[in-house]
Amino acid sequence: MLWLALHLPCLPLEVFPDLPSPSAIIDRERVIVADRAAVSAGVVAGKRLAEARALLPDLAVRQRAVEREQAALKRLACWAGSFTSEVCCLAQSMLLLEVAASLRLFGGAAKLFEGVVAGCAAQGHLPQAALAPTPLAAQWLAIGGDDRTCCALDELPQRLGGLPLSVLALAPGDEARLASFGARSLADLLRLPRAGLARRLGTGLVADLARALGDLPDPRQRFVFPELFAERLELPLQAEQASALGWAARRLIDALCGWLAARGGGVSECVFEFRHESGARQRPATVLALGFAGATRDAERMSHVLGERLQRLHLPAAVECIGLRAGAPAALVGHSRSLFVERGEGAGDESMAGLLERLQARLGDDGVHALSAVAEHRPENAWRRVAAAPLTGEKSPPSPFLAPATRNSSGGPRPLCMLAQPQALRELAGRPQCGGPLRLLAGPERIESGWWDAAEPDALGDVCRDYFVAISRRDEWLWIFRSQAGWFLHGVFA
Q1: Which residues contact 371 (CB under 8 A, 6 or more apart)?
Q2: Geometric angle at alpha carbon 126, from 105 and 103, rounded to 5°
Q3: For a surface tag, which of 82, 245, 330, 410 has the fewest beta carbons within 10 Å of its beta carbon?
Q4: Which of 233, 227, 278 is nearest to 253 (CA)?
Q5: CA 353 – CA 202 distance, rounded (Å)
């Protein structure tokens, strides 16, 4: 096993993004954590609030909100699902990720470590991270600020030996007793006889040392990813323009994609809620639903669609909180890739689906459609518009742009481009004209009847036409017909 620990010492402060600097979080009239400006003025953890106020009269203070911290840790655990499904949430503002099975996927321990730390920072948290073969060793290294990767058990005694005893979070009496033994670091502690240490300080500390070094098993309770995704994020400043919401919404999208990766699925729709500032005229949240051409967990695709929609979104009031929810994940369709395609190069179907999603976001759902063939012999009635892709849970057609077609039983050629209305052609010496005389290549193909809808409004009715494939002087292949009214152009072959 290989454990990556993310220690978040500033989490109580980070859950209040709107708190101005200098600021501090207190609990029972004592400072829990302070920002850099406050620390530089002498406001440190453990100081009484009155003393902190004396040092910084303009210090912004908030009471610790454990519920917010737990919600932020849960959102970060969902985000971590992009790297591994083996995630543990610890009460002391820490995440543990078991990443041994993810090393090859992310290019080795060093690259995985850098990616996790950078991603955590992008989520708005500044972690102290460590990588070690045992979970307790990773915790202690992270708390001690040792971010050098450690992948072998035989390296642990040396690496842990450089840590201070404060990483153990011992009771003050036990720490003082160890100091009386001459122990100032974990290296000093590891040199002491285990039996004597157990008699003087109890078996718990000795067992912790054995677990940290890998001599005893250390099972950890895994984080249970929720059945449905529903997260929210407070904004540091109120946003009055929809385009300014993209950076915060991307954090929620990354958390959603991590949750989907851990659940092994994707979503075809997710819903954003932009909650407006509270006041005398409280407005309902602005709801923005994003639909995709198929189930996906690609954060870039989701962000592109969101960006297009935000450009056309009007906010009735400033936004102070963003929420994102999604239903149960759906199975992702597998894709075959070429042996020589580089990773990251999208397959054709995925590229077309992404293009379709962006067109729908920019032009609206009614501005993009697909064509479907209909079992009808009259050309005007042989096709109909259908939705280009489902925006809910309906089963999508094989291609996002062409619905299943009905085979042409007549076997005659049909052009891809059909005119909305047949265009009348001149006739000269018995030959149809279109920029000059046309040369008939194939035909005639008789298409007639339709009496059954002759009395219906806007219906085509009864027809009797002889269709030909013709070529013009400009080498255009045309589909024309002759009826009692004369010659008509009805389509153009590609």
Answers
A1: 383, 384, 385, 386, 402, 403
A2: 15
A3: 410
A4: 233
A5: 62
Tell whether the model's pLDDT for residue 319 goes beyond 70. Answer: yes
Bond preceding residue 444 cis, omega within 30 of 0: yes
Distances from the Cα of 201 to the Cαs of 32, 165, 184, 214, in angstroms?
A: 28, 14, 16, 21
DSSP state string for 250-305: HHHHHHHHHHHHHHT-BEEEEEEEEEEPPSTTPPPPEEEEEEEEEEE--HHHHHHH
Kindly report, residue by residue over 370-408, the tens digit of the pLDDT. 777 777 777 877 777 777 754 444 444 444 444 444 445
User: Please, how many CA atoms are within 13 Å of residue 336, restricted to the half-sphere of its CB?
Assistant: 0
| Residue 165 DSSP class | G
Cα of 321 vs its chain's centroid, Å:
18
Measured on CA atoms in the order 396, 398, 402, 408, is the torsion positive or negative? negative
Q: Which of 266, 262, 309 is nearest to 286 (CA)?
A: 309
Q: Which residue is listed with tokens 């054709």?
A: 348
Mean pLDDT of the chain: 86
Round to whole Å and give the CA distance between 275 and 294.
Answer: 28
**Residue 139, helix vs strand vs coil:** helix
Q: Mean pLDDT across the stretch 462-484? A: 88
Q: How far apart are CA 27 and CA 38, in angstroms?
A: 16
pLDDT for 148-182, tens place per residue?
989 899 999 999 999 999 899 888 888 888 888 88
What single-letter amino acid sits at 179? A
Q: What span, in angstroms and rounded, lies between the C-alpha atoms of 33 and 64?
A: 10
Placement of tokens 């929210």 in the chain:
232
Structure tokens at 6: 């993310």
Pairing of strands 439-449, 431-433: unpaired
Residue at 123: amino acid letter: Q
pLDDT in the model for residue 410:
53
